[in-house]
Design a protein that fits this description.
Butyryl-CoA Dehydrogenase, subunit A, domain 2, fatty acid binding, 677 residues, three-stranded antiparallel β-sheet, single chain, six-stranded mixed β-sheet, binds flavin-adenine dinucleotide, binds ligand LHPKVLDO, alpha+beta, Butyryl-CoA Dehydrogenase, subunit A, domain 3
Length: 677
């Protein structure tokens, strides 16, 4: 152990980690600034982290694993109020800082110091407020937004029902306009129409955005959004006509009180229909305002965009834990009479972990780029231009699907990399995994969203066939008709072009398949269904090509004025990422490009050399994510590397250790062992 001063405190640091940090050849702070989107953001983030975490209010006295479900929820509500107060106060102090807002990555990060699972207010922050911002008229906004931002009301987003989640048009809850009273009557006509899943609905919120089928003058106009009060603002009792409760234990999100909601002819004022995109006049006349009917789905697009950033952060946490632990952990004896090596020195361990670091960078840069695209499309929509929306929908759908799926898979690999101790709850890897694993399903299931992107790609292909211009992310399709396979080029640019050919080749194969089925007499819908396995694969290939291109270009752009070693290490990670996926997808490359067996051999050699090049900087790279111990919440991943001490300290907190003999011994085990039971 070595003693080191950190933030004014003297701490003991594991000697292997001290050596690792001494080996690091680049400026860690510089990389942190790049990942944060600039030094100004890092300074601001650290300031808010200090304010919100230094007083220890985020800490639990008893680890929440030992609390009952009810106590865990109550503890989460208590901490949510402290957390929300910090956001309110800091937001007021932050005017002018355009990069930080209500849903800023900074507030997101500190939330993890407060909640091992989630805050019951997650959907208030992530969905209720964004829906108010996106779906209200200016008058409605003036009424609802200040109340929601001040937490005078707390809300959630209630869309999914027992019977339907994916197929929104199939939702059954009705909102029928009554012109006599100028009210909407909300009703749940069947068991399958019961609302199910909304976060915070079970016990926490008093308002919600409800998605329901709008009926007026006897005509159904499809799903619309309504602001519905469900609990009394004083007593918190459910209002008449409302049945509401918690849906019970889940694989994760257990402090999130996901709920059910049943309406029995519950009335709300006409003004509570969110009327930015469509209106119902007092006499019941339906007026469509928006030019694109899917603008009602705006909150989902927003959350899908945010989830990409969410994935980058969660993977950064998991790999920080796994790399630090792998530097501390020593195991086996590959050579006789030699000391046991750090497990990080095993090539296979590097193969598990360095791709996770690279992926966290790839997702961070892709997420920043996607967010910019999102804000630019929002600006277009404000100017009544809706032609950029389909591309944003296609991009956010496939990126949400692939990033959540990759991130869950890589977090599980981080757990594998930590052996048995990775399975301890105190490693925090199981909590991170159960949180991330749900993201592949919610906000649009993986397969469903990739099929949305595939629809866009098939249409784009038809445009390209007609030699019509297409948007930037699919401009590579224009080269799909070049007949000759170009010689394999293993440079970064060459690999990206090769994967664009893979995507184009897969889309082309889908088109051929759909047309083949149509020629055999199938209608388009059936031909589409028969092609869906290939369509999902084509959308995945397109998405990966977008990520490769974005990661590569953003790395060059963001390191243009960096110090040489920072530039090198960031480029090495990007190259590693491209080599890793080339080797993972050799089948695709053999099918659609001129890659040969010899090229695969070369790729493998280059990949393994790159692992060795990155090895000395591994701990520095995860330190550069700059995730405080309070946020990591891990016995294995803390900055000081006191892994075994922390494991033991945490074990001693088990209530089972409070007494030398548990009463069940005398009550059950002893009589059983003595044959008396
Ligand atoms: C942990 C502490 C946090 C602390 C908080 C601090 C800060 C917060 C920070 C960040 C928060 C933000 C996010 C991060 C995390 C969490 C968020 C919070 C909670 C999330 C919990 C989960 C919530 C939910 O799950 S809500 C429910 C979501 N449900 C879905 O997503 C349903 C999926 N289904 C669909 O989207 C659609 O039904 C569909 C499958 C796309 C099909 O729709 P349909 O109407 O049938 O359309 P059709 O197929 O006919 O297509 C017609 C046409 O429309 C196009 N289309 C479809 N959708 C869209 C769209 N959204 N936009 C534009 N266009 C769209 C479609 O492509 C077709 O086009 P075309 O005809 O082919 O041209
Ligand atoms: C932790 C968590 C939190 C949630 N929070 C909220 C919330 O706050 N508010 C809210 O409204 N909802 C919420 N949800 C619900 C969530 O949005 C839905 O569960 C999700 O959209 C998936 O829909 P589903 O459950 O209907 O799945 P289904 O659509 O029933 O999916 C089942 C299977 O069928 C497949 N499938 C479905 N349709 C097709 C198709 N057209 N083609 C091919 N395959 C298909 C899917 O790929 C999947 O494998 C939450 C869910 C979870 C798990």
């Amino acid at each position: 152990m070595k003693i080191k001063m950190l933030a004014g405190k003297t701490i003991e640091i594991n000697v292997d980690l001290v050596k690792e940090r001494a080996k690091c050849n680049f400026n860690i702070r510089e990389v942190t600034h790049i990942l944060d989107g600039g030094e100004k953001n890092t300074i601001q983030r650290k300031k808010i982290e200090d304010i919100s975490l230094n007083d220890g209010q985020s800490r639990d006295v008893i680890p929440e694993e030992y609390l009952s479900p009810k106590e865990r929820y109550e503890n989460a509500v208590k901490k949510s109020c402290i957390y929300a107060r910090i956001i309110k106060t800091e937001l007021m102090n932050m005017t002018g800082l355009e990069t930080l807002g209500f849903n800023s990555p900074v507030f997101r990060r500190i939330a993890d110091a407060y909640f091992k699972e989630v805050t019951p207010l997650l959907a208030h922050f992530g969905m209720f407020v964004p829906t108010i911002m996106g779906q209200c008229t200016p008058e409605q906004l003036a009424h609802w937004l200040p109340r929601a931002l001040n937490f005078e009301i707390v809300g959630t987003y209630v869309q999914t029902e027992l019977g339907h989640g994916t197929f929104i048009r199939g939702l059954e809850t009705t909102a029928t306009y009554d012109p006599q009273t100028e009210e909407f009557v909300l009703h749940s006509p069947t068991l399958s129409s019961y609302k199910w899943w909304a976060g915070g609905l079970g016990k926490t919120v008093n308002y919600c955005v409800v998605v329901a089928q709008l009926y007026t003058k006897g005509v159904c106009h499809g799903v619309h959004t309504f602001i519905v009060q469900i609990r009394d603002e004083e007593t918190h009792m459910p209002l008449p006509g409302i049945r509401v409760g918690d849906i019970g234990p889940k694989m994760g999100y257990n402090t999130g009180d996901n709920g059910f909601l049943v309406f029995n002819h519950h009335r709300i004022p006409r003004e509570n229909m969110m009327m930015k995109n469509a209106q119902v006049l007092k006499d019941g006349t339906y007026v469509k305002v928006a030019r694109h009917e899917k603008l009602t789905y705006g909150t989902m697009v927003y959350v899908r965009v945010m989830l990409v950033n969410e994935m980058a952060f969660n993977l950064a946490k998991a790999v920080t834990i796994a790399v630090r632990y792998s530097a501390v952990r020593r195991q086996s004896q590959p050579k006789p009479n030699q000391p046991e090596p750090q497990v990080l020195d095993y090539l296979t361990q590097q193969h598990k972990l360095f791709i996770c670091i690279a992926t966290a960078h790839a997702l961070q840069f892709t997420s920043d780029w996607l967010y910019k695209t999102f804000t630019s499309v929002l600006a277009d929509i404000r100017d009544d231009k809706i032609d950029t929306l389909p591309e944003l929908h296609a991009l956010s759908s496939c990126l949400k699907a692939i990033c959540t799926s990759d991130c869950a898979a890589f977090i599980e690999i981080c757990r594998f990399a930590c052996g048995g101790h990775g399975y301890m709850a105190s490693s925090n890897l199981s909590m991170i995994y159960s949180y991330v694993s749900a993201t592949r399903t919610y906000e649009g299931d993986y397969t469903v969203l990739l099929l949305q992107t595939a629809r866009f790609l098939v249409k784009a292909w038809e445009q390209v066939e007609k030699r019509r211009p297409v948007t930037s992310t699919i401009s590579y399709l224009s080269h799909a008709f070049d007949k000759l396979k170009k010689p394999w080029d293993g440079s970064n640019e060459g690999i990206i072009r090769a994967f664009q050919r893979v995507a184009a080749g897969k889309i082309s194969a889908c088109i051929n398949c759909i047309r083949y089925h149509q020629k055999s007499g199938k209608d388009f819908e059936d031909a589409w269904q028969l092609t869906t396995i290939q369509l999902v694969a084509a959308a995945e290939a397109h998405c990966r090509a977008v990520i490769y291109d974005t990661y590569y270009n953003e790395t060059i752009r963001l390191t243009a004025s960096s110090s040489p070693n920072v530039k090198s290490v960031m480029e090495q990670l990007c190259t590693l990422y491209l080599l890793y996926w080339s080797l993972e997808r050799t089948g695709d490359l053999l099918r659609f490009t001129s890659l040969s067996e010899k090229d695969i051999f070369d790729l493998q050699q280059r990949y393994e050399k790159m692992l060795a090049v990155i090895r000395p900087n591994a701990v520095g790279l995860v330190d550069a994510f700059d995730i405080r111990d309070e946020i990591l919440n891990s016995t294995l991943g803390a900055y000081d590397g006191r892994v075994y001490e922390r494991l033991m300290e945490e074990a001693l907190k088990s209530p089972l250790n409070a007494e030398p003999v548990n009463s069940s011994f005398h009550k059950h085990l002893k009589p059983f062992m003595q044959g008396k039971l």
